[in-house]
Amino acid sequence: MGYLFVIRKLASNFINFSFPETYLICAGLLSKKKKVNKPLARKQIAPLMEAPTTSRKPWKKNLYENADYEDNYTDPSFLKDMQTNRNLKTYVPAEAFIGATRLSQQICVVTAFLIVFHHLYMERIGAKQIFCQSAIGTTVGYFIYAGRDIQLAKFVEDSKTAFAVLVFGFIFSPLLHTLTNSISTDTIFSMTFFVLLLHLIFFDYGVSAALVSKAISLNAAIFGSICLASRLSSSLHAFVLLEVAAVFFALGPFLVRKLYSVQLLVASIAVCCFFLYTISHIVLYTYISTLAFVNLFCPWLFVRLQKYKNNINGPWDEAIVAEECTS
């Protein structure tokens, strides 16, 4: 029996190392279903790797108590405070039209300034005459703006300031008149168009917005007037145009804001249309088309697109500290 056991053992080892697997299956020494150790899938490994040894603390919306969670972890409770269109105000067509008239009023102011420049450029009216009319209009507008609250001391102080501005403007007008002589007229006119458009974009129309900037709006208008002043025939004409620009763009908005009404807008449009009719019919039609686009199409489009507004507020918004007044 011992010899048979040794012979069988040697034969088994010889067969395992010398014959193919198919022969072993036929001989009955190897089962047909061979067990293969397959690698575990990722879904099976992930729970084993992520299985915490201890329970994690509940997630909280702060930085120092969420050490057990991944950096990109988002808890389902994070979006429970999300709000859509909070404090949303819808506008009716009449309100949108009234708001658009503010822009139309400033377009009329810019158009009136360009009409004055055209008359000075073509020398249809004298510079001294425009200066006297502008001075009289500024004085009348000052008293209208001050109303019954006018004080003699304040009037004298404001008069000194205005006189100082006029003196410095008259002194530097020869320099400003020749400042851009090396630049072509077409380039000056194109540059003026874009800076006046910039003035209209950043102008304060009474709406609280990040785009509003009084400094940029005023500087753009003054820069445009300096560019146009360099195209006039003399330094006196340049001085008068700069004085008109200061009245229209620096002092005028205060008076217009106080006296603003639809009737004032209609009167401004009528005056501009009258002078543009004497200058060019094409310019007149362009002016009317621009006002129609601003006052009719833009309000209609604004009211129509209100239903698509989707403003989302949630925990990701910047915190606003509310100050409490204690008496």
List keywords for this structure.
2 strands, 327 residues, 11 helices, mainly alpha, two-stranded antiparallel sheet
Task: Give your account of this protein's structure.
- It is a single chain.
- The chain is an all-alpha fold and 327 residues long.
- Helices cover 64% and strands 1% of the residues.
- A two-stranded antiparallel ribbon has the order 1-2.
- Helix 8 runs antiparallel to helix 9.
- The radius of gyration is 41 Å and the shape is elongated.
List the topology elements.
Layout: H1 2-18, H2 21-27, H3 42-50, E1 83-84, H4 93-121, H5 127-146, H6 152-177, H7 185-202, H8 214-229, H9 235-259, H10 262-279, H11 281-304, E2 312-313
Antiparallel strand pairs: 1-2
Helix pairs in contact: 4-9, 4-10, 4-11, 5-9, 6-9, 7-8, 8-9, 10-11
User: Order of SSEs, N→C?
Assistant: HHHEHHHHHHHHE
Mean of all residue-level pLDDT scores: 80
Helical coverage, percent range: 55-70%
Count of extended strands: 2
Query: Would you tell me the structural class of the helices and strands?
Result: mainly alpha
Largest sheet: 2 strands, antiparallel
Low-confidence stretches: 1-6, 13-36, 45-53
State which percent range the strand residues make up.
under 5%
Number of helices: 11
Distance between the termini: 112 Å
- Strand arrangement across the biggest beta sheet: 1-2
Assembly state of the chains shown: single chain
